[in-house]
Amino acid sequence: MIQKTYPLSKSRYIRGLQCHKSLWLYTHKPKLRKESNAMKAGFQQGHDVGEVARDIFPGGEFIPFDEVSIDEQIRRTQLALKTAKVIYEAAFSFGGVFVKADIMRKVGHSWELYEVKSSSEVKEVYINDVAVQYYVISGSGVPIRKAFVTHLNKKYVRNGSLDVKQLFESYDVTANVKEKQAGIKKEIAEQQKMLAGKPHPTIDIGPHCSDPYPCDFMGHCWKNIPYNSIFDLAGNGVKKWALYKEGIIRMDDIPLEKLKGQQLQQVKAYLDKELVVDRKGLKTFLSDIWYPLYYLDFETFLTAVPPYDGLKPYQQIPFQYSLHMQKRAGGKLYHKEFLADPNCDPRKELLDSLLDEIPGDGCVLVYYQPFEKARLKELAERFPKKAKQINAIISNVRDLLVPFKGRALYSWEQQGSHSIKKVLPAFIKDMSYEGLEVGDGGEAIEAYQKMCVMADKPEELAKIRNALLEYCCQDTLAMVRLLEVLKAKAKEA
Ligand code: SF4
Questions:
Q1: Distance between CA 474 and CA 141 in Å, rounded?
Q2: Whole-angstrom Cα distance, residue 88 to residue 41?
Q3: Across 97-110, average pLDDT
Q4: What is the pTM of this model?
């Protein structure tokens, strides 16, 4: 009997390398796939970076793919190979696999192959990606002399117009790619055989579900993992996959002798529906808070390609803050906020506004201080004339995360997490992030990016602005309420 063959592409092959079941589901049950917003954003980012990288070797011939058949793409590539010195998105098919090469450059009578990645390092999965391209292109009769992974240079700092040659670094992976050639034909045959079979291969969940990429079929394969499972255990300690192999899935079933430290505390608190209060720890934390007190939260966005001067790839750019203020304990609550206009460098205006509000002697309370401190330090580097004032603020920053992370106060409802999104509903029943139009940092970035493309739609722009302001305000108001909880618990007999 002749086995039916399924079209494989570079990305399908890589999916199959991660998990055969994922490739089978992708081919036969695509409706089960759930692509998160982060996955979509990552894909778009990769696409954008790929376009920018073409300027490393400008003037190349582009092989279009939108609404152009595979056969036509291959035909145009064959023509370009005869005349062009550089080709973008060259298309090849060999051994049942179709690939598009980001950049190919002719050197003498052979070609160099460049695979562009929006990451800032070389990963094993990228080498597999280049290896299958090398296999297909060489198999098509086109000689490849060298193969590279081209990634962002994390040390690059933009100064004026974008210097694409400095923004990227190319890493020669020719030797690694050649080493992998022997196994590719076999893997393709195995993937084809697996795809022809029904039902899907029996593959259990495992660390491969998120390595190297988070799998978009987790909603399907993980549906029987209950709420409060071993995968909700916080921190390092017991090996979750070792427990899973023993058949232990629910938190209730973990033998307590296998646990220690915070994991033991988490499970005991969950079993007894307990609240853990360390009054001494709470008092120590509270003794270091003073008034006037400023509750501060930044929202930031980041892009692979730095949009403004003084920025590196993926550097966080603050575009919004919320600031609640109390002059004395239990005193009136004041609120200030800033949200940048879209499509401009927001840093100077944001900083000026912030420095107008926070004096050098106020206590500045944040949730997870490395984040806010790093943003403030970056602003000080960018605007050295303001550095003294900014550094005074940095030295006054205190971290509300500390008592929750250190479990001076811990509720079983936090499920081991000390994220404010989990802590808040555990202690403040009348406040929640559920139902907010913007409900987390990722959605805030998306909302701001939407604002940037809606400059000519004032009504929609105003709606998104309000959602962002509401979200950021909620973060600092949450801190106000949580500090009240800490004080009340510290006082309880
Ligand atoms: S969720 Fe895990 S087991 Fe299921 S398809 Fe994805 S990688 Fe494979």
A1: 60
A2: 22
A3: 97
A4: 0.90
Give yes or no on whether 8-196 and 281-491 have one common fold: no
CATH class of 8-196: alpha beta
| pLDDT exceeds 60 at position 94 | yes
Could you tell me whether strands 317-326 and 333-339 are parallel, antiparallel, or unpaired per DSSP bridges?
A: antiparallel
Mean pLDDT on 244-273 = 94
Q: Which atom of ligand 1 is nearest to the CA of 215?
A: 6
Domain ranges of the chain: 8-196, 281-491
Ligand 1: which of 24, 217, 222 to mutate, judged by most atoms within 8 Å of the beta carbon?
A: 217
- Is the domain defined by 281-491 classed in CATH 3.30.420? yes
Kindly give the distance from the C-alpha atom of residue 221 to the centroid of ligand 1, in angstroms, as a whole number.
6
Ligand 1 contact, 217 CB (< 6 A): yes
Q: What does the alpha-carbon distance between residue 388 and residue 380 come to, in Å, rounded to a whole number?
A: 8
Contacts (Cβ under 8 Å, ≥6 apart) of 370: none
Q: What integer is the mean pLDDT of 358-369?
A: 96
- Give residues with Cβ within 8 angstroms of 320, minimum separation 6: 298, 299, 337, 338, 339, 340, 346, 350, 444, 448, 468, 469, 472
Which atom of ligand 1 lies closest to the CA of 22?
5
Which residue pairs from 353-361 have beta carbons closer than 8 angstroms and sit at least 24 positions apart in sequence? 353/321, 354/321, 354/323, 355/386, 355/389, 355/390, 357/294, 357/323, 357/325, 358/294, 358/296, 358/323, 358/393, 359/292, 360/389, 360/392, 360/393, 360/396, 361/292, 361/396
Tens of pLDDT, residue by residue over 424-453, are: 999 999 988 888 888 888 888 888 888 888
Q: What is the pLDDT of residue 1?
A: 58
Asked if residue 19 has its Cβ within 6 Å of ligand 1, the reply is yes
Separation of 25 CA from ligand 1 center, angstroms? 9
Distances in whole angstroms, Cα of residue 350 to Cα of each of 321, 340, 453: 8, 7, 21
Which region holds residue 152: left if phi is over 0, alpha if psi is between -120 and 50, else beta? beta
451: part of which helix (H) or strand (E)?
helix 441-452
